[in-house]
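Reply to dn_fold:

You asked what the input looked like. This is it:
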Amino acid sequence: MCDCVVVHRCVFNTQINMSERPTLKRQKRFSEVEEMPVKDGEKKSLVGVIDDGSRTLRFVLYEAERSEELASHQLDKIEVQPQEGWYEQNPCEILEHIKVCAGNAIAQLTDLGYSKEDIVTLGITNQRETTIAWDKFTGEPLHPAISWNDIRTDTTVDAILAKVPDRNKNYLKNISGLPISPYFSALKMRWLKDNVKTVRRASRDKRLLFGTVDSWIVWNLTGGPKGGIHITDVTNASRTLLMNLETLNWDPILCRLFGIHRDSLPQIRSSAEVYGVVQDGSVLDGIQISGILGNQQAALVGQSCLLAGQAKNTYRGGCFLLYNTGPRRVNSSHGLLTTVAYKLGPNAPAIYALEGSIAVAGGAMKFLRDNLKLIKDVAQDTEHIAGQVFSTGDVYFVPAFNGLYAPYWRKDARGIICGLTAFTTKNHIIRAALEAVCFQTRDILEAMNKDCGMPLSKLHVDGKMTSNDLLMQLQADLIGIPVLRSHTWDMSALGVAVAAGSAAGVWSAERWRGQATPADTFLPTTTDDVISSNDNGGITGLLPLFEDDRDARYTKWKMAVQRSLGWATTKKSFAMTGQKRKNSIFQSIDTTSPPNSRKNSEDIENLTDVMPDDKHIEEVIQSSARKFSVFVPQEIQRDERTILDDIEYYMNKKECDYGMCECCQKRKLHTDWKTIEEIIENDPEIIFDDDKPIVVPKNSQDDVTRSPMVYPDLIDICKQIDEANLN
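and this is what came back:
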């Protein structure tokens, strides 16, 4: 048995001298190579990559068809949390970091025998779902970017689910592949329109642009207000809850349902084609842009998982597992997302994937460091301290800080640590946090097996957390299949370099398809491995994990998950209860009557019918009606407006409003799918300014008319979606 396999089947005991560990055999990194390729007469074209992550921004340079980084520079980003569960970023900081990182990386080229002129193209990979709104005439962002893991749109989700049959969160999956969740961009876009006055007014004036981070970057690099290109690629668009997975275009029904006008959305393009040229006066000026991929799809390409049945998992702050299903769309019935994996060219077929998204992976380690103060250094302490114990001591940690994503999709879940005893130490808790990442990955793999009917034979992994050997071994043990760790921790940048290079003609995507990336292999532990290690004087202290034991621990994990559900309880919105909110329990229904009047007393008594059954509150209300001697008129509160007001407004229209009824044209209205699309697309947009509906005609910025609101039921739109699903 080779040393490499023995090492990867061992849990290290801290009593052993760390310098005596067997050396891991792997390829040399680029920085370890003594002679640069250019010195051997192998100078190649360069591909630059802008890699925008949740917490860092990098600029990386690759030689064409080489997987090692040639030069790179990165900067940390500031993430602001104005309220619990809210996460925001500064869009302008992203642009500034791109300039600084690109300048520093390109400055390294001289010593490597290259120059800026050798960069033939750029690729962009970005954090997905993070949403930005900006003014297309000034280029100024209208609000901080709302991050992908932000959950402020909970009430917006409630408003939609209240109108959807059976409050089914999967009602739109047949069209978009996604559940109705705060995770996706459409909810963030609608929240901005509902809650930010500058966004509403920009929408009214036809100067609003929405986009994910890739759209923001491309628009600014290609000129911004002076002719910037407003585009996105299919992978990012498939994460908005607005794109039709079949047509690969914005779905008119979904756009109208969420109240997002298509004029404010970017054009959807493939993942690999020449989009435009940088024209921002920076060091990148004049270089073409030819590749865009969401970061997890980019990692799939970088791992060379380009064949159906291959899968990768990226371990970062969150955890994202993608399973390539080829040109076939698999509609998950077990809590997974159907998404576009990539489309390498305008005429190339779209390749789809099943995805399981885990909200908290590395974030759990930061929680142990920053909140509980159990560790000081995430990279070193988690492996070192957790390795001092052979198990978690039956402790289970469910890090559902902002709810659970796939396959549960429960925004009411919250984190728990259970199974504590008098013998539990911080070592057990830290090890339980590592195992939580592994168990969540198994959750997703179990769902994928059920959806695809093809159990995965091996799992490719990347991300910063994969440097933890103990985590990788636990992962192999708990899922029972080999884990292949790439030598490069960030495969997202490499993946989009392949896409951009293929569009520019300097990187063969087909050749990359069959290429195996260098990787370390971690095999599931068995009893024979332990005996072999001990007989050869190897590292001791490894506990074998039998299949029955593996399943028993996974069963307890599921029990812990069940205990985490239902912790987050919030007051139901008007959309969920059907009751109108009052500004105060003392507010009169008829503010023109003094508080001692008979009518006012009757109204206040009637209020108790909709109040909680609380004796104290009832006594306070009755007492206030008798004792208040000074009448203070109060402003009448407006009814709470929900996300669906604009769609309900248009659903209340009749055939005559469109001039397509029998009485107008002596013919019946043909409500086929094409007609429905045309009707909705040609409708004017409705904007709310200070809660007053303003109708904006399709091609006008000045002709603004006000129209009264009505509140019919949403059954018509639901019927149209049902018909679309059947077709």
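The longest strand covers residues 56-63.
Hope that clears it up.
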